Amino acid sequence: MKPIELLLEKYWIVKEMDEDNYNKVRSELDEQTQGFIKEKLGYKMIANPYVIKLEKIPGKPQAFMGIQEFTNKLEYLFLCMILIYLETKSRKDQFILSQLIDYLQNLQTEMDLREVTIDFNLYSHRKSMVKVLKYIQELGFIKRYDGDENKFADHIENDVLYEVTGISKYFVRNFTSNISDCNLYTDIYEKEQLGLDQDKGIERRQRVYRRLFTENVVYPEDKDDLDFLYIKNYKNTIEQDVDRILDASLEVHKDGSYILLLDNQNFKNTFPNNKAISDVVLFFNTIIIEKMKNKEGTEQGIFVSELEFTKWIEETKNCYQDGFSKEFREKDVRELSSEVVAFMQEFDMVRYHVDKKEYEIMPIVFKMRGTYPKEFKDL
After folding, report:
1. What are 302's strand-pairing partners?
2. How many helical (H) and strand (E) elements, i.e. helices and strands, does the chain have?
3. What is the pTM of this model?
4. Over the Cα atoms of the chain, what is R_g?
5. Which pLDDT value is given to residue 300?
6. Domain map of the chain by residue range?
7. Residue 272: is the preceding peptide bond cis (ω within 30°)?
8. Which CATH number does 73-170 carry?
9. pLDDT tens readout for residues 110-142
10. Which helix (H) or strand (E) segment is 280 a member of?
11. How does DSSP classify residue 178?
12. Are strands 142-146 and 161-164 parallel, antiparallel or unpaired?
């Protein structure tokens, strides 16, 4: 991968864990690409003897940008509290899990938490803690020296020995203002003003580039959407940048814009990808396209009832399951529907409207579909 692709793909590159890519970025990131990062994306890059990190701030926060491994607020809370604990430690310091647990319990009292009460006597809380410990090990915050945190999930008395690497201090970016009085992410979003230059032209340019490089698709909110108008007006310039930086192409349609990667490019959070659910969704898109031939929708998408949507998933299973992985062949329609919806929402292919119990089929669905080759059908 090119250095810019590594920086965009990975949260960061830790030298001790990935020295080859660390050295690749340090030696091969050219001035032209650095200029693009600074001028077009407005991103800052941290580079020191331990880690290289591109601070990827979204142009518009989206639900899928959360930590995919986490499933509840408690896990985010554990992460924040562990970060506070690690601030009290120096690089190479060691600690045992029971010490961390005691610290978190004391910190809970000091913080006067109201929404969540931590109780490590509960299996679910220990299981969430294990999930966070594994996550920060994968990122390189800590190294495990002895023990197994999985056993802690089974019983609170099981201990584990860890060593601090010191890179956790680079996890949270430096904010340009005090965010202690912020209650929602939108408060931070507004206060920081995305960290962009106050000149409206530069601000819009960097926001649009950020959206194209971090969102799966940029939809126009209405006919006067300024971000989308910018994409259309500066299509040629953006197209040249995308081709030069990623060897990819920019697709601009009246109902959405997105970056289309080459067949040999394999980023982690792209569609389609190597996950089995990705194939299922491609076939589901085929069913949707067939069903929608004579349906009319709004400028944004087409609405279908929850019942009808589920029936289409059942039809997809009946028509195409011979090529599904064993895992998805064995799922019932309810389980399959839940996973399909979650995956499609992550890529902004569908939006669920609770008040009407309807799904909004977004335009990107009609750009990608899946079919079996003739040889498969003849088997």
Report:
1. 361
2. 16, 11
3. 0.86
4. 23
5. 60
6. 1-56, 73-170, 276-378
7. yes
8. 1.10.10
9. 877 766 788 999 999 999 999 999 999 999 999
10. helix 276-291
11. -
12. antiparallel
How far apart, in Å, are the Cα atoms of 7 and each of 2, 21, 29, 67, 103? Answer: 9, 10, 10, 17, 34
- Residue in the structure block whose two tokens are 């996973």: 339
The CATH architecture to which 276-378 belongs is Orthogonal Bundle (1.10)
Range of weakest confidence among 220-229, 294-303, 325-334: 294-303
Alpha-carbon gap, residue 244 to 242, rounded angstroms: 6
How big is the chain, counted in residues?
Answer: 379
Note the pLDDT of residue 198: 46
Q: What DSSP string runs through 245-266?
A: HHS-EEEEETTEEEEE--TT--
Identical fold at 73-170 and 276-378?
yes
Question: What is the spatial distance between Cα 14 and Cα 31, in angstroms, rounded to a whole number?
Answer: 22
Alpha-carbon distance of 166 to 17, in angstroms, equals 13
According to the model, what pLDDT value does residue 259 have? 93
Write down the mean pLDDT value for the chain. Answer: 89
Output the six-digit token pair for 222: 């209405």
Give per-residue pLDDT as tens, 31-76: 999 999 999 999 999 999 999 999 998 888 877 788 888 989 999 9
How many Cα atoms sit within 13 Å of 254 on the Cβ side?
4
pLDDT at 4 over 90: yes
CB 72 within 8 A of CB 128: yes
- Asked if 122 and 194 count as a contact pair (C-beta separation under 8 A), the reply is no
Helix H or strand E segment including 130: helix 123-139
Q: How confident is the model at residue 378 (pLDDT cuts 50, 70, 90)?
A: low
Tokens of 204: 């819009």
Q: Are 121 and 82 in contact (CB under 8 A)?
A: no
The count of other CB atoms within 10 Å of the CB of residue 52 is 25
